[in-house]
Amino acid sequence: MEAKRHLPRPVNLEEADDGVVEFSPLNQEEEGTVTIEVPVAEERAAWGSKMQFMLSCISLSVGLGNVWRFPYLVQQDGGGAFLIPYLIMMVLEGAPLFLLELGIGQRLRQGSLGVWNLISPWWGGLGVASTIVSYLVGLYYNVIIAWCFYYLFNSFKSPLPFATCPNETIESLNLTLPVEECELSSETAYFWYRQTIDASPTISETGGVKWWMALCLTLSWVLVWLCIMKGIQSSGKVVYFTAIFPYCILVIFFGRAITLKGAGEGLKHMFTPDMSKLLNPTVWMDAACQVFYSLGLAFGSLIAFASYNPMKNNCKRDAIFMCLITVFTATFATVDIFAVLGFKAVANYEKCVHHNIEKLQAISHNWTKYSENISITVDNYDKVWPKIFLPRLKEYYINETHKHIKNCSVADELNQAAEGTGLAFIVFTQAIVELPGSNFWSVCFFMMLLALGLGSQFGTMEGVITNIFDMKVFSRVRKEILTGSVCLSSLLIGMIFCTGAGEYWVGMFDTFAGSMGLIIIAFFETIVICYVYGHKKFTDDIERMIGERPGIYWQATWRFISPLTIFSIVVASVYYRISHPPDYPAWKMEEGVAVKEAYPGWAMFVCLVLLMAGFLPIPIIYFMRRCQCIRFDTDIHQASIKRVETTISTQGMIKGEEPMPRIDTSDSEWTRLFIDRVDSSTSLEDNL
């Protein structure tokens, strides 16, 4: 019997677009004739437009950290001086890593799981690690979105529920007084700790699930599922809102904030540099970490986003633009925040002055000799107040008024640093309460936080879903069902964040699941691409895609500067964790303040598990594949040329054939290398 092979014409990457070639089943058309079909792989999903891709990257990178993390660092680390290390780190690590992820995703057309298995199966753990970290970050990030929903709903109440302290009735005395916990703290702090999260005194006391927060979290996950269930076809349209709306609100806030009384004080405080802070290595570490997180590096989402781009997309221009827009957004948001905080500081200062004047007037009859010559107002307070401390009055002042007189200072008010939930839900809401039309500004602010949070959440979960969907075991599952299953599991696990200890758990996940793991993943990304995949090969890929070869800046940062910078961050972070044992701010109802407490033993174990989950898959998979405990062929169905429904019965039909001629895929080097491995000594089934 004469066996004939009908081979298709050579396939060029320009036609295949993604360079992936599929082998379909062997078909016996007539007796003695066997046909091997080598069609181009199914076309990978693509963005509806370049605008969708850019807005998705903006939504991912420009998140909540730009609004509540960056202003805190500026306030804490030297004001305007902090912008110096921030910009330096953006140049040394931010832009190079951003282009690295966009370039490798666009070139290999895979999610992060497929990319790293494709480069080297030994380093497949990078994709697994980034998927785990992204999933863990998505778990707690959606809880923050749920908190924003709760505040948004309450923003429609008039007056705002966090504007005043609620009253309680003391039946024995027949008195109605403000709640003591609120009096000891503040209206906004009480609403946050007691009426929003109902904080327990320690992380060990959960206090049960708070039904109102569970409902808000359910709403958050349902919304995420609806927006990403069809991949970029659905999320790509939502980003028109999540990326553009926050900028509209920031512009509106800017127009109002700079006209507020005290805005100048806040901006002066922001831009006044304390150059001595630059000698503190912690400031540089803060700047490096902020650049790292604000760009969304190492989550795998950027690789997934880039994989849907056309091969000739100019990813270098995209990376530079995204770094510029991130710096601009962080600075612009900080100007808004400090203008409003300046207004709040001046308002609190004036309240403090009026309080002290009332107290002085109440005791002035005891020292009329001096009070006749002392007239204190808000305008002359700073000049006149020191005169009260005349030696003959000092003893009287200490004995009679030290429990009532407050220290009034605008600078002290501005120096009260707050970050994260403290800035958004306590400090900034206190400023909103003071604004005319506070309900409108409250709705705008929390709508902005929702848009920022949801945009980042869509990108984070898209990185998870893309990687899971690229696995062969899930490739035939409808994406809506797969996405729904991931969101449902996340909702059930996320109920731990809806307990009284929920904020403590969020802080734990943020510190240990979303920090160290990402830094280590980014370090290995640069090493694998530059020294395993090959920096020359990667440079050639970039040149082939954009028509321009990366210059000395990109070469130096990829090969030397960025890895060394990230390694320094890892070492500094490890040293910081060892020298500063982890703790959390536990809310004490009796005192009305949050007190730092050490994690109990079981919580430290959870911290260790979260920390190790972010990077252990890298060495585990490396050594298991090195020791051949795991087959080299990956479960990522798009990571290599894939067979389609070839059965074992076809193996004997092609044994003994002469070597298969090379398919001309001149623009796809990895495909060419794979085809070269097919020879007459092995079956097609074994090679695939």
From TrEMBL:
Identify the residues that bind Na(+).
Answer: V62, N66, S294, L452, S456
Membrane spanning stretches: 53-71, 83-104, 125-153, 211-228, 240-263, 283-307, 319-341, 440-460, 481-506, 512-535, 556-578, 598-623
- At the top level, the lineage of the source is Eukaryota
- Can the keyword Transport be found in this entry's annotation? yes
* Location in or out of the cell: Membrane
Biological process terms in GO annotation: amino acid import across plasma membrane
Q: How does it sit in the membrane?
A: Multi-pass membrane protein
Q: Name the GO cellular-component terms.
A: plasma membrane
Keywords annotated in UniProt? Glycoprotein, Membrane, Metal-binding, Sodium, Symport, Transmembrane, Transmembrane helix, Transport
One annotated GO molecular function: glycine transmembrane transporter activity
Q: Which InterPro entries match?
A: Na/ntran_symport (IPR000175), Neutral_aa_SLC6 (IPR002438), SNS_sf (IPR037272)
Q: Which family does it belong to?
A: Belongs to the sodium:neurotransmitter symporter (SNF) (TC 2.A.22) family.
Q: What is the protein name for this chain?
A: Transporter
Please give the organism: Cherax quadricarinatus (Australian red claw crayfish)
